[in-house]
Write a structure and sequence with these properties.
The chain has helices at 26-51, 55-63, 76-100, 104-141, 147-152, 155-186. The two termini are 44 Å apart. The chain is an all-alpha fold. The protein has one domain (26-187). α3 runs antiparallel to α4 (104-141) and α4 (104-141) packs antiparallel against α6 (155-186). It contains six helices and no strands. The radius of gyration is 27 Å and the shape is elongated.
């Protein structure tokens, strides 16, 4: 004789149970990347801001007492630009932490960082190009015995400067451009971040 009320298996999930949707993974990934990049920016920018006032002394040891290019003297403009870079990195750090927490304001802060970071990177590349140009003009008229001028006039120095600027352009522009596209065109709604599941 067959029975119609057979017991359900112990591990069966009732059909009427409405499980919450799995939140997307990308906010956590982007948040972690932003925190890593921001930490690197804070460390490198902080070291650069500390070293800038002593740049002349450090370069003086490399020149072995010879004359240095005037552009290597510390100035308020370079220090202010380095301070702006620190603030930009701090903004990215906050944006990354809020994005990991799936806060919609993290999207807006990432957009602000991208809008600010792209001109900052371009300005930094221009400053570096201007530094190399003025140093090259100075080195062409400097004392041939000046070791700093000799080092700058070497082919290795020119190649290294080109590689450094290319790396700075790729590293400084790629992530802000990605954020501008991702948060400006792809993930434009607060609901795109999903809702973290509640822990009971």
């Amino acid at each position: 004789m067959s029975t119609t009320n057979e017991p359900s298996p112990p591990n069966a999930v009732p059909q009427y149970l409405d499980l919450p949707p799995t939140p997307p993974v990308w906010p956590k990934v982007i948040g972690i990347i932003s925190i890593v990049f921001a930490s690197l920016g804070l460390v490198c920018g902080g070291c650069g801001l500390i070293v800038t006032p002593f740049m002349g002394q450090l370069m003086g040891s490399a020149a072995e007492g010879h004359e240095l290019p005037p552009i290597y003297q510390p100035n308020i403009g370079n220090m202010a630009y380095a301070a702006l870079g620190l603030l930009s990195a701090l903004l990215l750090l906050i944006a990354g932490a809020l994005t990991i927490s799936r806060k919609p304001v993290g999207r807006m802060l990432h957009l602000v960082y991208a809008i600010v970071g792209i001109p900052l990177t371009i300005g930094g590349l221009y400053i570096q190009w201007k530094l190399q140009r003025e140093t090259a003009a100075w080195a062409a008229q400097a004392d041939p015995a000046n070791p700093f001028a000799q080092q700058f006039n070497s082919p290795q120095a020119g190649f290294g400067n080109m590689i450094g600027m290319a790396f700075g352009a790729v590293f400084g522009l790629s992530y802000p451009l990605f954020l501008l596209v991702w948060f400006g065109l792809v993930k434009r709604k607060a609901s795109d971040m999903g809702t973290a599941p509640e822990v009971l």
